[in-house]
Design a protein that fits this description.
GO terms for molecular function: metal ion binding. By secondary structure, this protein is of the alpha+beta class. It contains seven helices and 14 strands. Strand 11 and strand 12 form a beta hairpin.
Length: 247
C-alpha cells in the first residue's frame, strides 16, 4: 500500500507498507507521487517531507525543492550520516562511516522480502552503476540497512544483494538501533507486525546520498529510475566530494 496523506497545506506524509502475500505495486503510483512532489517543490513551495508513522517519532525533513539538473530534492538543512555499527553480511561488525569513508554513500532502509520498492530501488542503482566508468564506480558505496532484522540474517542479506551487485553493503542487527538511526533522517520505521495474519513491514522509501563530508544535501524519493540515477551519480560525485571533511 502506498499512502500520501496531507496533514497541513504544505506537509506530506509518504510511506510504503507491505504485507507478505499482498504484493502492492509501487512503480506506477509511487513514481507519479514522487513526480508530483518534485513538481510542487519546483513551484517554490516549501514542503515538509516525512516518512510514515507517528510524526512525533519521526521528525520531518524540510526540503526547499529540486535542483535544476538533478532528480533529487534539495534539503534546507543537511542530514548527518549516522555513526552506526551493525552486523555486516559477513557476520562481523561494520561501521557505516568507516566502511564507506571517502566515498559517495547511498543509504537505503528496506527489507529483502519486500515485493516492490526495495528490489526495484536496488536494481535501478545497480543498473546505473554499470553505466559509470570504473573510476567513478569505485567512489560510490550503496548501503542497504534492513528494517526486518528478524528475517534478514547476514546470510539472507548477502544472497539477496548479490543478485543486484555483490559490492553492495548490507547491514542488520538490533531493530531499536536501526530505528534510532533512521529517526533523525526523517525515515520512519514501524516494527514488523502480523496482527492481520500477514507479516507487514512499513518503512520510508528514500535514498540518502551522503558525501565525503558525511552529510546528505539532497533526498531521493521512490520513482527515480535507473536512467535518472545514471545521469545524477557523476554530478553527485562532483558535488558531494568537494564539501570538505567531516564536521
Amino acid at each position: 500500500m502506498v499512502a500520501v496523506r496531507p496533514f497541513t497545506m504544505l506537509r506530506i506524509t509518504m510511506f510504503f507498507s507491505h504485507a507478505t502475500g499482498r504484493g502492492a505495486r509501487v512503480a506506477g503510483p509511487g513514481a507519479a507521487i514522487a513526480r508530483r512532489l518534485a513538481g510542487a517543490a519546483a513551484l517554490g513551495l516549501l514542503t515538509t517531507l516525512a516518512a510514515c508513522g507517528n510524526q512525533a517519532d519521526s521528525p520531518p525533513v524540510r526540503v526547499a525543492g529540486p535542483t535544476p539538473d538533478l532528480h533529487g530534492t534539495r534539503i534546507t538543512t543537511p542530514l548527518r550520516e549516522p555513526d552506526l555499527t551493525l552486523t555486516g553480511a559477513s557476520g562481523r561488525p561494520v561501521n557505516l562511516r568507516k566502511a564507506t569513508e571517502g566515498r559517495l554513500t547511498l543509504v537505503y532502509f528496506g527489507y529483502t522480502h519486500c515485493p516492490d520498492v526495495c528490489p526495484t530501488t536496488m536494481a535501478d542503482l545497480a543498473a546505473a552503476l554499470r553505466k559509470l566508468a570504473p573510476a567513478q564506480r569505485t567512489r560510490i558505496a550503496v548501503v542497504f540497512i534492513t528494517t526486518d532484522p528478524w528475517r534478514d540474517t547476514p546470510k539472507v542479506i548477502k544472497s539477496w544483494l548479490a543478485s543486484f551487485d555483490s559490492s553492495f553493503i548490507g547491514l542488520t542487527g538490533d531493530y531499536a538501533k536501526i530505528q534510532a538511526a533512521a529517526k533523525p533522517l526523517g525515515i520512519a520505521l514501524e516494527r514488523p507486525s502480523s496482527t492481520t495474519g500477514d507479516y507487514e513491514v512499513t518503512h520510508g522509501a528514500e535514498v540518502l546520498p551522503f558525501g565525503t563530508d558525511h552529510r546528505a544535501h539532497l533526498i531521493y524519493t521512490a520513482g527515480v529510475t535507473a536512467a535518472d540515477w545514471a545521469a545524477d551519480l557523476p554530478k553527485l560525485l562532483r558535488e558531494t566530494t568537494t564539501k570538505g571533511g567531516d564536521t
